[in-house]
Amino acid sequence: MNRRYVFAAVAAACALATMPTAAVEPPKDASATARQLVRWATENGDHQGLPFAVIDKPAARIHVFSAQGQWLGSSPVLLGAALGDRSAPDIGQRPLSQIRPEERTTPAGRFVTEPGRNLRGEDIVWIDYESAVSLHRVRSVRASERRHQRLRSQGVGDKRISYGCVNAPEGFYNQFIAPLFGQSPGVVYVLPDTEDFATIFEAASTYP
Questions:
Q1: 128 neighbors 104 (Cβ within 8 angstroms)
Q2: Staple 106 to which of 80, 86, 129, 163, CB 3.0 to 4.6 Å?
Q3: What's the angle, vertex CA 158, arms to CA 92 and CA 131, rounded to 5?
Q4: How far apart are the C-alpha atoms of 33 and 74, rounded to whole Å?
Q5: Which residues contact 70 (CB under 8 A, 6 or more apart)?
Q6: Is the pLDDT of residue 208 over 80?
Q7: For residue 18, what pLDDT band results from cuts at 50, 70 and 90?
């Protein structure tokens, strides 16, 4: 059976069996936009009873929530080197050497995730399989990129380095990402950095 059909079926079953989650309190250091999205997603049950995360690209942070809407933890993340909220056509079929600098974006939107493996056999979480965008532990591609140092930096601009994938600290990934999203589907909301919030999340943009 096609794996995309399986994941869609699981998500649909959760939606049918789950009532909207009670309102939760997002972390106090989250941006106003991230907090608004969390209120909308939980109070309307948009996450379909699945664990979910909000990736705030303008702040270069991820906030993780349980299936019941409980906030579990937040962390800085590394993102695509280029600003932009869409993936280039056919980017998932191209080798990295053929991806131009301006195409190295982390797409914005709502994604149903699925567990996966990279070419090294390491566990990852697919955010957008067709565009080859995943959430994974930070790994040094080249020493000159200083990815681990960038994660510790206070500068948001330092977090823009990947080809589009989201890199999380290894400890945070092992504690919060792998157990929740590495075994079954989840939902990831990625906030835009160039387009209006209302363009990507129309319903949430009008939520109080």
A1: no
A2: 80
A3: 10
A4: 15
A5: 24
A6: yes
A7: very low
